[in-house]
Write a structure and sequence with these properties.
Layout (H helix, E strand, L loop, with lengths): L4 H6 L7 E4 L3 E5 L7 E7 L14 H18 L7 E3 L15 E5 L9
Antiparallel strand pairs: 1-2, 2-3, 3-5, 4-5
Bound molecules: adenosine monophosphate (AMP).
Length: 114
């Protein structure tokens, strides 16, 4: 059995506030929101970090962006804008080792990110 938190959410073993799913990805609200809209988009396939991607995963990663676009439209944030973040490894802030894209919106964002 997988020890991965996001695999457990994918498999329904841990509850999550799902906002989107299709055959490739699912999205759920972050438990510790850093913005009025803060959700996570994950591939159904377990890939620990961007470093662990293989050639066959390239299209799958595109699905994360396609889902972000779709969710943004559904939430009415496309025009105002939204930020997408993918942390790779602990030094960049990754704490859950199943690739995920943060989608944040509903407030202003500064650059460079903290
Ligand atoms: P990262 O630090 O990039 O790995 O992001 C992991 C994110 O997962 C953090 O923003 C956490 O708040 C979020 N998180 C942790 N546990 C859960 C959970 N059970 N359901 C939803 N989000 C979670």
């Amino acid at each position: 059995m997988s020890d991965c938190l996001f695999c457990k959410i994918r498999d329904g073993e841990i509850p999550a506030d799902l906002v989107y799913e299709d055959e490739h990805v699912l999205a759920f609200n972050d438990v510790g929101p850093q913005a009025p809209v803060h959700l996570l988009i994950i591939p159904r396939k377990h890939i620990s970090t961007v470093n662990d991607m293989v050639e066959d995963d390239v299209l799958l990663m595109g699905h994360l962006f396609a889902a972000a676009k779709e969710i943004a439209a559904q939430k009415g944030i496309s025009e105002d804008g939204y930020r997408m973040v993918v942390n790779c490894n602990a030094g960049a802030g990754q704490s859950v080792f199943h690739i995920h894209m943060h989608l944040l919106a509903g407030r202003g964002f500064s650059w460079p990110p903290g």
